[in-house]
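Q: Hi! First time doing this. I have a protein sequence and I read that you can turn it into a structure. Is that right? Here it is:
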Amino acid sequence: MAYFISRVSPGDKRAMAEVEALLEREGLCRDRNLDYICAMYDEDYRIVATGSCFGCTLRCLAVSADHRGEGLLNRIVTHLMEVQLERGNLRLFLYTKGSAARFLGDLGFYEIARVGGDLVFMENRRDGFENYLRALEKTRRAGRSAALVMNANPFTRGHQYLAETAAAACDTLHLFLVSEDVSLVPFRVRKRLAKAGTAHLPNVVLHDSGPYIISHATFPSYFLPDEAAAAGGHARLDLAVFVRIAQALGVSVRYVGEEPFSQVTALYNQVMAGQLPAAGIGCVTVPRLEVSGVPVSASEVRRLIRQGRLEEIRDLVPESTFAYLISPEAQPVIARICQAGDEPL
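A: Yes, that's right. Below is the predicted 3D structure, encoded as C-alpha cells:
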C-alpha cells in the first residue's frame, strides 16, 4: 500500500481530530507545545501515523495498531528529522513511550532518562549527555556540594539571597543558569549579572545549564504560560536527568526558592520535594526574600520596568544589575520588556 506524509494545519479540524484520536488509541495525548504536526495517510486518505515537533524535540509519535511492522514510524521520524535539518537543528531530542525506545534506537537516538515505563527521553548524539557529565565532573570538589538552578531574568536580590543562603550551608555550590535564550534578558547578560551578583561567594561554581536542565528539551512547559497540566510529567523528566547530574558532581542537596507567583514553578518545586529525596538528594526550600513586606521577584522587576519606575527597582536588585538596567546597553532589553507581556520566568 502506498502512503504519503503531509503537514497538518492546526486549522484543519478534521485532520486534527484524526490525529488526536490516533494518539488516544495509542495511549497518548496531543501535546499542547507543538510547532509542527505531520500525518501519514493511506490511499483512502485515512491517517495511519503521526509525529510532531516542538523546538528541537520530536514528540507525539504514533502508528496505528493496524499498520505496525510496516516501518511507518521510521518514515515519520525521518520526515521530522528532515524538517529539523531545514530549521538548522542538528542536535535533536525526543520523547517516546518505553515500548518504542528500541525502534528509535535503530534510527540513531540514545536514551538519556526515563520516567517509569511511560516516558523515555532520547537524543541523537551517542555521547552527548555523557560528555556533558564528564565536563561537569571536572568541577567536582571535596566536601559537601549543593546545587541551585535559576533563570535570573534579570538577577535580583532574591536570587542573590538564595545563592548566599545555599552557599553558606555547603562547601561548594554548583549554580546552574538556564542557558536557552528564550527570556527577555539575553543569556549572556543574565550570566554576567549572576556572576557579578555572586562574586563575593568564593565557593560558587557557575554552570551553563545546556539542554539538560530546565530547557525546551526537558521542561518545555516551564517556558509557556498556563501549562501546569503538562508540567508534572516534564518536571519528573527534568528531575530524572538532574539526578544523573547531581551524582556526577557529588551533590547531596538542591536548594529552591519559595514560589508564590508561578503555578508551573510551584508544581515543579512540589514534584522536586518528593522525587529528589527518593534519589538520596535533599531538597531545601528557602523562603523568598522580602523588601518592605513585598516578596522580591524578577517578574516584579519587569513590571516596574514596563511602568517606567526604574528608580523603584534599586532596592530589589544588586548594584551590578541596577547599573546595567540604567545603562545605554540595556535600552534594547528595556524596550523588549516594555513591549512584551509578562513571562512565566
